[in-house]
């Protein structure tokens, strides 16, 4: 009787965006590599998020999607014949259209993305390359609490993997480490003083802790002998710059928009503690092993987007209006924003004292 030898799997994972969602996929990557050490594992994401995975020891290939790349062109780069397993972690109209164009059998996460007429619209739009500009659908609500990092494993049911109980894993490479070192040296921060990193920005204003609170916390930390660095993207720079100016301390500086994503990750890795709202850098901080104090308002634990497994303290208030659907610059629908405004500077400072390394 002939002996059948199965070839190692070749696995494509798709998660277009965003920072936190990509970071949350890293426990799955680690589990896949541990279970299938000879597999070829590729991760497809938007170019701006590729640096998060560039140094991953669990990936053979990062497929970076250019901002202007059409879905038709992308599908030609990932034809069904290249991969034995195709995992869609995105669940958006865009990823569903890619599945249609690339062909083959796909596995995906239960309850992610759209269905029915809207899903059909996304697939039809892809045929005219419209879907790459199409809207993202919100995740469906779930009564049970399942962290997003563990939901992703549903798409890998055929690959015999389970969560290992460890946090996300982001590796800052030598270039990112050198970039962080240069920036901190030029700023004169983190040299013999504890380094605390703030991530106060994010795309949704309703999820931001008030600027006046950040100013008071930064001033207090500087007075106790710590250096404070604020990180974020270019879009966060006006907010972070205002915090720095109002603090009036040379020990408080903004790196928002000045560091690459990898450089920001390397700065986060050096922090004694990180204070962040519900935004991507919080999950990067967990991924590089930094202790985190998370400030959550509209978002609740049931979303699955709380810090996963790492050293973290989450501060939240039990308001009946949570979770809240306000986003994209909307103000608090009830006009009080109490879910975040009622978290005090004392609350956060005390949490830092408990959490910092």
- Beta strand count: 11
Q: Going by CATH, what is the homologous superfamily of the largest domain?
A: Glycogen Phosphorylase B
| Broad shape | globular
State the helical fraction. 25-40%
Euclidean distance between termini CA atoms: 60 Å
Rg for CA atoms = 21 Å
Number of helices: 13
As an assembly, this protein is: single chain
SSE-based structural type: alpha/beta
Beta-strand share of residues:
5-15%
Biggest sheet, open or closed, and with what strands and sense? 6 strands, parallel
Q: Order of strands side by side in the largest beta sheet?
A: 8-7-6-9-10-11
Mean pLDDT: 89
CATH architecture term of the largest domain: 3-Layer(aba) Sandwich
CATH class of the largest domain: Alpha Beta
Q: What name does the CATH topology of the largest domain carry?
A: Rossmann fold
> Unreliable stretches, pLDDT < 50, 5 or more residues?
113-143
Tell me the count of domains: 2
Q: Provide the succession of SSEs.
A: EHHEEHEHEHHHEHEHEHEHEEHH
């Amino acid at each position: 009787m002939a002996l059948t030898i199965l070839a190692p799997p070749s696995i494509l994972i798709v998660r277009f965006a965003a920072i936190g969602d990509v970071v949350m996929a890293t426990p799955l990557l680690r589990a896949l590599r541990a279970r299938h050490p000879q597999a070829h594992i590729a991760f497809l994401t938007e170019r701006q998020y590729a640096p998060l995975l560039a140094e991953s020891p669990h990936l053979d290939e990062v497929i970076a999607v250019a901002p202007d790349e059409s879905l038709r062109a992308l599908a030609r780069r990932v034809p069904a014949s290249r991969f034995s397993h195709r995992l869609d972690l995105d669940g958006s109209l865009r990823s569903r259209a890619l599945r249609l164009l690339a062909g083959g059998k796909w596995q995906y996460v239960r309850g992610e993305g759209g269905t029915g007429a809207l899903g059909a619209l996304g697939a039809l739009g892809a045929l005219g390359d419209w879907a790459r500009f199409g809207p993202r659908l919100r995740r469906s609500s779930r009564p049970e609490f399942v962290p997003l990092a563990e939901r992703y494993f549903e798409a890998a049911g055929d690959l015999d993997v389970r969560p290992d109980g460890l946090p996300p894993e982001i590796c800052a490479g030598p270039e990112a480490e050198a970039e962080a070192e240069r920036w901190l040296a030029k700023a004169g921060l983190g040299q013999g003083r504890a380094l605390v990193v703030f991530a106060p920005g994010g795309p949704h204003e309703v999820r931001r802790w008030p600027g006046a609170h950040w100013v008071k916390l930064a001033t207090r930390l500087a007075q106790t002998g710590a250096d404070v660095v604020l990180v974020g993207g270019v879009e966060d720079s006006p907010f972070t710059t205002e915090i720095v100016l109002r603090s009036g301390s040379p020990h408080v500086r903004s790196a928002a928009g000045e560091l690459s994503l990898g450089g920001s990750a390397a700065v986060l890795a050096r922090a004694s503690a990180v204070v962040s709202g519900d935004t991507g850098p919080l999950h990067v901080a967990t991924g590089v092993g930094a202790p985190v104090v998370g400030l959550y308002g509209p978002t609740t634990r049931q979303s699955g987007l709380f810090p996963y497994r790492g050293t973290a303290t989450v501060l939240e208030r039990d308001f009946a209006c949570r979770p809240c659907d306000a986003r994209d610059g909307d103000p608090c629908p009830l006009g009080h924003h109490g879910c975040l405004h009622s978290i005090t500077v004392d609350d956060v400072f005390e949490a830092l004292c408990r959490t910092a390394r």
